[in-house]
Amino acid sequence: xxxxxxxxxxxxxxxxxxxxxxxxxxxxxxxxxxxxxxxxxxxxxxxxxxxxxxxxxxxxxxxxxxxxxxxxxxxxxxxxxxxxxxxxxxxxxxxxxxxxxxxxxxxxxxxxxxxxxxxxxxxxxxxxxxxxxxxxxxxxxxxxxxxxxxxxxxxxxxxxxxxxxxxxxxxxxxxxxxxxxxxxxxxxxxxxxxxxxxxxxxxxxxxxxxxxxxxxxxxxxxxxxxxxxxxxxxxxxxxxxxxxxxxxxxxxxxxxxxxxxxxxxxxxxxxxxxxxxxxxxxxxxxxxxxxxxxxxxxxxxxxxxxxxxxxxxxxxxxxxxxxxxxxxxxx
Length: 331
Ligand SMILES: NC(=O)c1ccc[n+]([C@@H]2O[C@H](COP(=O)([O-])OP(=O)(O)OC[C@H]3O[C@@H](n4cnc5c(N)ncnc54)[C@H](OP(=O)(O)O)[C@@H]3O)[C@@H](O)[C@H]2O)c1
Description:
Helices cover 29% and strands 25% of the residues. With 331 residues, it is of the alpha/beta class. The strands form two sheets. The chain has a seven-stranded mixed β-sheet, with helices on both faces. A six-stranded mixed β-sheet has the order 9-8-10-13-12-11.
């Protein structure tokens, strides 16, 4: 049984994630009393079809939330979230935010429903959706943690251009036509760019810091040692993450595979087959493959995860948070 229909707003409705929000709400038959769409002044007046009806995008302003929403889904970047999420909260709306603005705030739960659904209920108005690469990695790592107690993780990512929104996709297409990039610091076509987001004083990038901090918060394991190297590749959609995990306990490969197979959010693909971005795109499952238990160290395991960064890495995870939250109304 579903919960009672909600008044839903999307901020960033014209963007890559915002457009996917609209599709996912429809696909998941999310009960909606009213859907309102917001973006910048640039998109105001454009329309989108939702459940066969035309819905017009409005400019997001300080008064946009006054009519009262049950939930506001933000996907318009950190600055917009920092400015407008507190305003939406004041009207008693539940905010689910896709940007990095609130993720590490102690009062804001950071949730992947397959890992820490219980954290949702500690919210004080805002629930944060994690970084796209972090989401797929922790969906896979939760079983490793539960079974073998992780002590150290190393991530290497191969991230698609759609992770940068329309600007990233545009640069890939420009490259295909021989034009210079407008968004990335180097051409992305025929290239690999070892920089995602800005560099910090430590020479780590902000994307790498996000993966480290967010993994610890979601797994409730602040003492974890995590290394991360994040790389942009000329793939249109779906990120790949190479995960190396050191555990306290000896890893039982069959037990791990069984735990992944028992998880409906995961598709485990055994060698010599393996996941690819093309295979992951358009679906919500986290694909896991290339599992190798170290021959010299029985407490060390490596594997890859591949998932659609716009779906499970963003819109799907946020809608799942909302559905988990509102389903509680029925208990
Ligand atoms: N792409 C991913 O894989 C992914 C994954 C996880 C999280 N996220 C996060 O989701 C957010 C959106 O990403 P995206 O990929 O969808 O980017 P995008 O395609 O560039 O879309 C950005 C959206 O933000 C809106 N916007 C910009 N300035 C605004 C303002 N002042 N007021 C209201 N709306 C404004 C844009 O509206 P206009 O079109 O009118 O300018 C557009 O709807 C970002 O915070 C990103 O970090 C993205």
